[in-house]
Amino acid sequence: MAWVVPILGLLTVPSVSSLPAFVKGRELIVNGKAVALKGVNWNPVRKGTTRQGWNDVDFRGFVEVDSELMEAAGINALRTYEPISDMEVLDVLWHKGIQVLNTAYIADEPDHNSILALVNKLKDHPAILM
Questions:
Q1: Closest CA to 54 of 8, 22, 85, 88
Q2: Is the pLDDT of residue 8 over 80?
Q3: Do the beta carbons of residue 15 and residue 5 sit within 8 Å?
Q4: How far apart are CA 81 and CA 66, in angstroms?
Q5: 63 and 98 in contact (C-beta within 8 Å)?
């Protein structure tokens, strides 16, 4: 079992080498292997949308087509502007070999409880890199 390090007496985290992803020198190590990320920012909104915000993002409606294009281009990571909370969208991305750098909150004063709920919901999904 990996040893843990207390942080400010509030929580403990596993030792770095036992984490599924960590930085070693100038390399990102994911599941024990050095990985070079080839990524995009992804914020799928329909043509004609007047506002690009939380309510207009359609991850579910675009994930099949967009993930095919990303896979064909060799994309293995994406960053979102708004959080992906849909497990089925994450499943599609994971099956295409695409990992997600997910946004936890987007604007204003963060509601810490909703952020924590989102992180706890998604933290164990294999597509979530950070």
A1: 85
A2: no
A3: yes
A4: 16
A5: no
